[in-house]
Design a protein that fits this description.
single chain, 2 domains, 6% strand, binds zinc ion
Length: 154
């Protein structure tokens, strides 16, 4: 007979107690190994599962973080500046005001896609004075304060 099966009822109860006291099955295993009891982590997990007290993955993960078994660093969030969308009718008005042509190079929509640009680079400043029609190429090549320079060398 496998000596691993010779765990007493007391040990079963103890494993459950240790587990409920927030030890991991690995820690319980180490404890038993130190006492000279030959038991595997898997066997402990089976005992815990058999008693229906196993933790959810989320709980296990939270506990592991709390107890420093797992290092958890929250992923750095990108600095999202939520821009309010230019409403389509205002966009159309700007295109109309600029005669559906790029104000820099004069291209119309048959040449390139027309875009409404924020002159001061403030994406939330939708005052008509701050808006202008640019073709995609002119808008794309325009240096922004966040960029070191233009993508397009002329
Ligand atoms: Zn242009």
């Amino acid at each position: 007979m496998d000596k691993r099966r010779k765990l007493s009822d007391i040990q079963y109860a103890e494993i459950a107690t240790l587990y409920l006291e927030k030890l991991s099955s690995i820690e319980i295993c180490e404890l038993y190994q130190k006492r000279g009891v030959d038991i595997s982590v898997r066997q402990i997990q089976r005992i815990i599962k058999g008693q229906g007290i196993n933790r959810s993955i989320g709980d296990a993960f939270r506990l592991a973080i709390q107890r420093g078994r797992v290092k958890f660093t929250q992923r750095e969030r990108k600095n999202l500046t939520r821009r309010t969308k230019l409403n389509p009718s205002l966009r159309y008005k700007i295109l109309q005001r600029d005669n559906f042509r790029c104000v820099l190079c004069g291209a119309d929509s048959s040449v390139d896609t027309l875009e409404v640009d924020h002159v001061n680079n403030q994406p939330d400043d939708h005052r008509p004075i701050n808006l202008r029609t640019l073709c995609h190429l002119c808008n794309f090549g325009r240096p922004s304060p966040n960029r070191k320079g233009s993508f397009i060398s002329i």
